[in-house]
Amino acid sequence: MNTSETILLAIESSCDDTSAAVIKDDKILANIVANQEIHKQYGGVVPELASRAHQQHIIPVVNEALKIANIQKQQLSAIAFTKGPGLLGSLLVGTSFAKSFAQGLNIPIITVNHMQAHILAHFIDDKGMKKPPLPFLCLTVSGGHTQIVLVKDYLDMEVVGTTLDDAAGEAFDKSAKILGLPYPGGPLIDKYAKEGNSKAYDFTKPKIDDLNFSFSGLKTNILYFIQNNTQKNPNFAKENLADLCASIQHTIIEILIDKLEKAAEQHNIKHIAIAGGVSANSGLRNSLKEREQTLGWTTYIPKFEYCTDNAAMIAIAGYHKYLNKQFDDLSVKAQARLQL
To answer: For residues 63 and 283, what is the distance between their CA atoms, to the nearest angstrom?
Structure first.
């Protein structure tokens, strides 16, 4: 092994996916994700069940990642893991395992902010992915967060806009639930939206100051609209599913892109990225690409595998913290709420 190489094991356990990755410098050698199917029957993530599933999955997932990467545990330089934000029970499983494993190997631990990692996924050395130059703006959208982040350096980021209530991903999932679609509903809205008319129905777009977002009013508007029309026609949602999905998706994306355009103008930046689970949405990706033509943006969209929760993004964030010697001691604790 080249002694100048940095080899990290990374663990992600912030919600309902157990993931382990191995990175050599900035190149991913393995990225394993174990999904938790049990939550589908409940229509959302059940925290207690999630933490139990993490306990079952974490050792097999880490073992598989090391095996695929063809790396022995003695070759590891450090272990990086998600400190937060996320579900505390889930985070505790990853934190406890990482600390114990690192202590056994006598190597450093590196804590990673989940939201920072989503953004740094852009810097994974992967064929077909272009890396944004610094500084750039990143729209980070997931089930729990919606933020516009000014990325000044790898580890120097400023949140310039955030949601005041619900996240865009939650708006997608709750709208899907109202329409009678199974969990997780966001990808299904994206699927049906491709067959529908995005201008069929007009939904509320909140007027929020600065670069902040709000989605609670939109969710309420969609709920009442569906309820009122279902009273007149019990099959309303089923008969108009594609148009409803297209209209809902169009509204959420317009809210996101409108604020992103304002942020780009205010900060005079034309390098624009997206990150987080909702960045896998085809409508959002297309809207962003359109701005390359209309506004002269250069856009950066990660591969699908790096959009949803995964340990590869924790690995690349850990790598940059390793280069800066930002290590943590074993007293560090998981934090359900953690600011960027």
So the answer is: 37
pLDDT, tens digit, for every residue of 53-99? 879 899 999 999 999 999 999 999 999 999 999 999 999 999 999 99
Length of the chain: 340
Q: Rounded to a whole number, what is the largest CA-CA distance in the chain? A: 71
Output the pLDDT for position 51: 82
> b/e per residue, 38-49, with b = 16+ CB within 10 A?
ebeeeeebbeee
Alpha helices in the chain (DSSP H): 47-69, 88-105, 114-120, 168-178, 186-193, 216-232, 236-239, 241-267, 282-294, 311-323
Express each pLDDT in 16-32 by its tens digit. Answer: 789 999 999 999 999 99
pLDDT tens-digit map of 143-178 = 788 999 999 999 999 999 999 999 999 999 999 999
What ranges in 179-297 are assigned the alpha helix state H?
186-193, 216-232, 236-239, 241-267, 282-294
**Stated pTM of the model:** 0.92
Dist CA 94 CA 113 (whole Å): 13
Question: What is the Cα–Cα distance from 282 to 288, expressed in whole angstroms?
Answer: 10
Compute the distance between CA of residue 49 and CA of residue 36 in angstroms, rounded to an integer. Answer: 9
- Domains and their CATH numbers in the chain: 7-121+309-323 (3.30.420.40), 132-301 (3.30.420.40)
